[in-house]
């Protein structure tokens, strides 16, 4: 039997370079591998667990589907869908709440971090975020989840819930594990951590023009002169050089070491290479957005395919719990 893989991305904006190279390329490999059945979700319900713009969400969740398609995800090979169009996610999360304590949710480091970030918006939705994530995965009985190490605490909650549901109600949920796909770590443009769309000035959108990309790459903090120990910004710049202009990397490193490197020259070479890599995506995206009926069809059919699996799981859970 095929191994079922589930992945979701929050609908907080268009895909950026870090999403594409760090996650989407791995997703493409999975959809083309006959060993796997892949479900890729736009997590619009997760988006409302923290403050958000309503109209922005309406736009972003659709744009995320378009980005998925432009990046090469194929609705004939993978199930692409919007979380809110599969109400079983929220229903199953509520049932999972009956086997999960408040103390367990409050103990999660991710919850504590969000409380610091949004001290005036600590809602039940935020507290129950890991329950919804567990429901996302277990609803499809997916055993493999391609996420970063930062999501491991949430996956542990999903495993705990799977064990409790199996022990108390005789379910057969798998205990999902983190599944590493081949992807690149893309550093933030500000020189700290990885590229993230929640950090302003950190990312390059896949739809950015060459001028915008040049402006963003030029903003990477470097130094007034080259040579000596590299600061975080310079290390970031050379990480991008290694990814996008590997054949020129040694030349620029030698220039840096002997103090002759003009940072703007290196930055522009990187920016031009990034834009060249993104051109096929942008061209495909421009074609897709001309056909709104096709996008509607992908969203509709994706929801139908996801619900055909999800409804069976919820029906089974309700029966085991005495609710049907």
State the total count of DSSP E strands: 5
Instruction: Calculate Rg over CA atoms.
Output: 22 Å
Structure annotation, total helices: 14
Please indicate the percent range of residues in DSSP E strands (runs of 2 or more).
Answer: 5-15%
Major β-sheet profile: 3 strands, parallel
User: What's the end-to-end separation, in Å?
Assistant: 30 Å
Strand pairing plus helix content: what structural class? mainly alpha
Task: Please write the string of helix (H) and strand (E) elements.
Answer: EHEHHEHHHHHEHEHHHHH
| Strand numbers in spatial order across the main sheet | 1-2-3
Which topology of the largest domain does CATH recognise? Rossmann fold
Question: Overall 3D geometry?
Answer: globular
Low-confidence stretches: none
Look at the structure and give the mean pLDDT.
Answer: 93
Number of domains: 2
Helical percentage: 55-70%
């Amino acid at each position: 039997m095929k191994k079922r893989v589930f992945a979701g991305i929050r609908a907080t904006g268009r895909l950026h370079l870090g999403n594409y190279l760090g996650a989407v390329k791995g997703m493409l490999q999975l959809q083309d591998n006959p060993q796997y059945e892949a479900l890729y979700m736009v997590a619009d319900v997760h988006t409302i667990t923290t403050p958000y713009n309503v109209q922005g969400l309406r736009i972003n969740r659709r744009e995320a589907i378009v980005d998925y398609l432009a990046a090469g995800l194929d609705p004939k090979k993978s199930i692409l869908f919007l979380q809110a169009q599969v109400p079983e996610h929220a229903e199953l999360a509520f049932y999972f709440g009956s086997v999960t304590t408040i103390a367990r949710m409050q103990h999660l480091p991710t919850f504590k971090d969000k409380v610091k970030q949004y001290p005036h918006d600590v809602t039940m939705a935020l507290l129950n975020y890991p329950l919804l994530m567990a429901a996302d995965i277990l609803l499809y009985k997916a055993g493999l989840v391609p996420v970063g190490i930062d999501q491991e605490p949430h996956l542990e909650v999903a495993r705990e819930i799977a064990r409790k549901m199996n022990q108390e109600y005789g379910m057969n949920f798998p205990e999902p594990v983190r599944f590493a796909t081949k992807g690149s770590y893309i550093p933030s443009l500000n020189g700290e951590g990885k590229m993230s769309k929640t950090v302003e000035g950190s990312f390059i959108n896949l739809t950015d023009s060459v001028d915008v990309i040049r402006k963003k790459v030029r903003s990477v903090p470097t130094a007034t002169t080259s040579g000596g120990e590299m600061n975080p910004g310079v290390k970031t710049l050379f990480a991008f050089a290694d990814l996008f202009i590997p054949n020129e990397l040694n030349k620029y490193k030698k220039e840096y070491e002997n103090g002759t490197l003009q940072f703007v020259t290196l930055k522009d070479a990187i920016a031009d290479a990034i834009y060249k890599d993104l051109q096929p995506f942008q061209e495909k995206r421009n074609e897709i957005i001309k056909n709104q009926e096709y996008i509607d069809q992908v969203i509709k059919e994706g929801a139908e395919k996801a619900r055909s699996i999800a409804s069976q799981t919820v029906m089974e859970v309700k029966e085991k719990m005495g609710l049907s």
